[in-house]
Amino acid sequence: MFKKGTKLYSILFNKCPKCHEGDFMVEKNLFKLTKAFKMHENCPKCNFKYMMEPSFFYGAMYINYALTVGLAIATFIISALVFDLSLLKSFIPIVAVLVVTAPFTIRLSRIIWINIFVSYDASLKKDVENEQ
Length: 132
Prior knowledge:
Elements: H1 7-13, H2 60-81, H3 91-117, H4 122-131
Helix pairs in contact: 1-3, 2-3
């Protein structure tokens, strides 16, 4: 399920969707906010260009919207059912969760977006191994 060649592997381990070897983002630490959203222009291993066209990752905003709405609904349900907070008081935990998880959801939405359009190429694995 999480092996190379699956889109889930690329998404969960932040790897290039084409070769599953190179890192997608420059910084692995989510909370180094100065570099948290910096992506490599090309894959360090297979040289696949991540920005396939200008403004390609604008579509990731739709993925990010879905992720944040899901988090907000889950937070509301937990705050209302478990902690018995009113509608107005439940906005505080919702905002807190969305602010804390923003670096994660932004990065995740970008890698999901590119994985929608790019598939794994097993022949690249052989090329990368031959170069080393």
